[in-house]
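Trying the structure run again after the queue cleared.
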Amino acid sequence: MKKIILLLLFSVSVFSQKTTIAFDSQVLGESREITIGLPPSFEKNPNKKYPILVLLDGDYLFDPFYGTLNYGAYWDDLPETIIVGISQNKNNERYDDCNYDEANGVPSGKGAKFFEFIGAELLPYIEKKYPVAPFRIIAGHDTTAGFLNFFLYKDNPIFNAYISLSPELAPDMENRIPEQLSKLKQPIFYYQSNGDGDVKKLQTSIKQLDTNIKQVTNPLLNYKFDNFAGASHYSLVLYSIPHALYQFFDAYKPISSTEYSDKIVILQSGYVDYLTNKYEVLSKNLGLKIPIRVNDFKAIEAAILKNKAYSELDKLAEIANKNYPKSMLADYELGLMYEKTGDLKKAAKRYQTASQLEEIGDLTKNMMMEKYDDMISQTPKK
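Done. Tokens:
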């Protein structure tokens, strides 16, 4: 019974962040149903900024995206994200919303208005109401997946990342999209997928688009295509969502054991530079500024110790002081440097100072005092 109650409480705490509103659009001349999903920690972190994910076909794409992002955020593999789902299945709105001119292959009629609604009304509303990071994602499925590509026709696309699930492409889109991607002046993440059980008439143009994009050499493009074996037009959605999100947020993930062994510990030097570069890329490409994780500090520390590059602990201490100025981390790293280089007196002093500061990670006041006593006991008496 207790387990059931706890489960219910957990469900309420998570899904209470999901709100559906009627959005009165002047551009569309009608009210549209919008579902907004806020991260579980939203109320606890009023100053934190979040990426935005705009979901076309929000009626059925909202929950799988919401679940994947919350699960990834729980393990700190994915950043917490504000999700904005646009309902489009009422009276077949999705087809009118995605209307385009067959002759020139661009949005027309209701499609042109819907395009403007997203960029000129919905996004400004969300960005004024909530603290957002400068990283916007848009996702859709078949008809809406094709439509979202129109945002790439602009010289300065308003979205940074695109998730196109089995897209139904507009005329000549398989050529126009690669042409635009080749001219990028800002980093763009692009993901598309289909399955070998997908709708046959869609597969030819999807694969042609994939072939053409793979010929683009612009370094600002981060592209991935998945063709899932055994996946249908609908099941491919569940395969695709984590693939797309983990592609976009690869730089966000903490240092893993694989990254440590394959990329860090094998370096001859520059361990701290690797750490700072990792978070600079996160800020530059994803617009996310977060403190360097304590576990990432420990990974770099372990690489430094393994390779006996003790002088880099000084630089690591500088970074620690910037990220956690009230904690004992910086003084601990300096104490470790002096200990490893044989200056036990200075090491003892640093460990003593650390013992008076805030604990962090697995570093405790008792641990610092034990390190201090150990240094004193090894220091030669005059």
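The chain has two domains: 2-252, 257-378. Worth checking whether this holds up in the mutant runs.
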